[in-house]
Amino acid sequence: MPTKNKFSNENEYRAGMFNRNEGFDHIKNIKANDNGIINSVAIELEKIIIFPDMISPIFITNENNLSAVIKAQEKEQAIVALLKKEETQDSNAFIETGIEIAVGSLLELPDGSHSALVQGRRRLKILSTFEDNGIIFTEAEAIIGTKKKLNNQERALINTTKTLFESVVQLDRSIPDEANMHINSIKMPGLLADMICTAISLPYLKRAEILEMYDEIKRLMFVHKLLKNELDILNIEEEIRFNVQKEVDQSQRDFYLREQVKAINIELGEGDIWEEEIKRYEKRIEGENLPEEVREIVKDQIKRLMLGPSLSPESSICRNYIEWLLTLPWKEKTTDNLNIQHVRGVLEKNHCGLEKPKERILEFIAVEKLRSEYTKQPIMCFVGPPGTGKTSFGLSIAEALGRVFVRISLGGIRDEAEIRGHRRTYIGALPGRIIQAMKRAKTVNPIFMLDEIDKIGKDYRGDPAAALLEILDSEQNKAFSDHYLEVPYDLSNVFFITTANTTDNIPPALLDRMEIVEFSGYVMEEKVEISLKHLVPKQILENSLSEKDIEFDPETIENIIQNYTYESGVRNLERQIGKLCRKVSKQKIENIENISKTLTHDAVEKFLGPPQYFPFRAENVDEIGVATAVAWTENGGEIMPVEVSVVEGKGNLNVTGQIGDVMQESAQAALTFIKSRAINFDIKVETFEKLDIHIHVPEGAVQKEGPSSGITLCLAMISALTKRKTFHDIGLTGEITLRGRILPVGGLREKILAAHRSGLKKIIIPKKNSKDLVKINEKIKKELEVILVDHMDEVIKIALQG
Fold it and tell me: Considering 708, 709, 719, 758, which one is annotated as catalytic?
């Protein structure tokens, strides 16, 4: 067995390093032969390295090592100590540097082993080793340090190393105080490096590396770097100890203050209530299905609440914040009813028409039923005229799916804080409307309707539309940031629906995040069906009547629609039906006899007054310079006669009738086309220089705009210039280019319905709009001939006489 250190810890190991005594003076160094070679017995040291001039205890447990030591003591001679290589198990594999040691008196221990103090003498370069009867013999060569005069740089190195060591001693409590005094007395760099290595805690391999450094300056520089690393580590440990102690002191202080607050609250008679509230919060934390991040925030707020007075403003703010975090739904979900037949039935029962919106919702149901981890909730924007059922359709979706329906109106909102909430630093701060609505919903997957998104304002308080960008973006709303909550809230499970009358006022960035679903105006048949199924029963009930008191037939409803309402939706129609019901209620209370149950035409006129609207009807005769345009408005489609008169003048073109820039340009383009084809129309070129052309669109109070009247303007001007009559029963829609080509237009469904309603027999539309004919009722297509054209020449052949 090798000789090794058996002290229980590093402090015991280094206890005698600096206790210098003269007990080794009688022990002589090993003499070298004439060749400078030292021949000596040796002992093996394991996990312990003795440096020159170092005094350290060792334990001897091996009999062969004990015999070698005894022989050396008998001769009063030092002995060689060998150090085994770390990376091998070969008993003869030693590092190339050994150490000459003087072994003091042996002391026998109770377990039969021996201990002794040893003194390091010289470094030895091991030349060879061999073993005889278990005893190791070695040949070595003494390493003699060079003595030279130190330069300024080397003296500075010695001084800075001593300063570093002093700092290490101050932080490392395991180094004895006398170590610093001994180190300060050393002036030789090699000895200084060795003595420092004996004092500080170093790994075995580092010690061995230093032992093998023969150059004293390099050895000291190496030790200097080790001291710097050791000092950095000790500083970090000291900082950690300081912080730990600080936290312990703070915890004790908090506990003391908390007990004081509790005692004060008890004296004020609030102790029991205060404790009950804290316990209630703590119980809710464990019971609520909260995300871990939110749970930690609530715990921190409860700690703040416990430290403050119960009636302070800070406590009130803290309680409100805790209540919001605990009340909001974080993971609660309702289960969707994904039976597609059930959903179709609910939508058909509650709404007439609206085929495209219904189809889109059924597609959504199909996707949800096949749901995967990549499926996202759609974000739809219902766009259409007022009264077309956008809001009520969202309510029907919620009913069909079995989800909670929440709605907020965005009309007139100008403050961004209405959406994102206020910071808690403000008195009376609250979350934004989005989070407030989620609290009302109590689930994370409601149907959320944002009404009137096209009517959001903007001022110095921010842009609410910009705040909606995060909410209405499926890639961002999974971590919506409300200023009041200051914790991300997941809105990705919410089915967002927005409504708007037009997309013109919606910011492009916001519009890009939504899927547009159009709600077109209702046709006469749909309005009649809606009235009889929904509006009439509702108004009878609201006005405390019964079906025995009043009866609406389809003719009465058509009369009201044609003469008393002018809209695409049915909102005003419902008001007129309600007005009739109120008149009947009044007669019933006044006990007027001979009340007719069925509302006749005369009864409607008596109750509602004379007709309020006189929609344009188709002309009765063919005329020169008159063509019938079919236009789209927010209230649906309508026909619009265009009149052209040619008078003597200077070749000017005048367009009147409250028209917009687009129609002005259409008129200019049409006139240029006519001039380019004047020969074909038998019109002399000088005619355009002698005549003024005046185009007038009646109903001047009604704004007219849009690229759909070019061919009508062109046809009316050709008729006026050539004195050829136009057919009175043909309506036209389409835009014209300078070459006479006809471009497609929008709102074709409403235009065809208006043409049919106005008594026209034919309507000319662009050939590229043929795809829109699939939306038209088959009955209407049978009663109204739709003619597809691609060029103005075709229009002239069809619509002009002669």
Answer: 708
SS3 labels along 216-250: HHHHHHHHHHHHHHHHHHHHHHHHHHHHHHHHHHH
Alpha-carbon distance values, 115 to 5, 413, 480, 754, 769 (Å): 9, 91, 73, 117, 109
Catalytic residue, chosen from 396, 719, 751, 758, is: 751
- Under DSSP, the state recorded for 506 is S
Query: Biggest alpha carbon distance in the chain?
Result: 153
Rounded Cα gap, residues 348 and 33, in angstroms: 117
pLDDT at residue 355, as a whole number: 83
Contact 711, 734 (CB under 8 A): yes
One-letter amino acid for residue 32 of the chain: A
CA dihedral 642, 647, 649, 652 (to 10 degrees): 10
748-773: per-residue pLDDT in tens?
877 888 888 788 889 999 998 888 88
Residue 446 has a pLDDT of: 92
Which residue positions in the chain have pLDDT lower than 70? 1-22, 86-92, 146-147, 248, 251, 254-255, 258-259, 261-262, 264-275, 287-288, 307-312, 372-375, 592-596, 615-617, 633-636, 658, 660, 699-707
Indicate the DSSP class of residue 531: I
Alpha carbon distance 668, 674 (integer Å): 10
Per-residue model confidence (pLDDT) at position 593: 61
To the query of whether residue 67 is one of the catalytic residues in this protein, the response is: no
Look up tokens 């014209």; give the residue.
Answer: 736
C-alpha gyration radius of the chain: 51
Using the structure block, give the residue that is written with the tokens 């300063």.
163
Residue 775 confidence (pLDDT): 73
Q: Is 761 a catalytic residue?
A: no
Looking at the DSSP bridge assignments, the partners of residue 4 are 46, 59
- What is the strand order of the sheet 691-696 is part of? 653-656, 691-696, 636-648, 626-633, 730-732, 762-766, 785-789
How far is 126 from 96, CA to CA, in rounded Å? 5
Q: Which residues pair with 638 in a beta bridge?
A: 631
CA nearest to 796, candidates 756, 764, 761: 764
| pTM of the shown model | 0.58
* CA distances for 194 relative to 188, 515, 519, 557, 630, angstroms: 10, 80, 92, 112, 106
The structure tokens listed for 572 are 């005003």
pLDDT recorded at residue 12? 42
Q: How many CB atoms lie within 10 A of CB 648?
A: 7
Is residue 448 within 8 Å of residue 435, measured between CB atoms? no
The closest alpha carbon to 636, from 761, 749, 529, 735, belongs to: 749
pLDDT of residue 406: 93
DSSP three-state, residue 559: helix
- Inter-residue contact 784 to 776 (CB < 8 Å): no
Neighbour-count burial of 735, counting CB atoms closer than 10 A to its CB (0-12 exposed, 13-18 middle, 19+ buried): buried
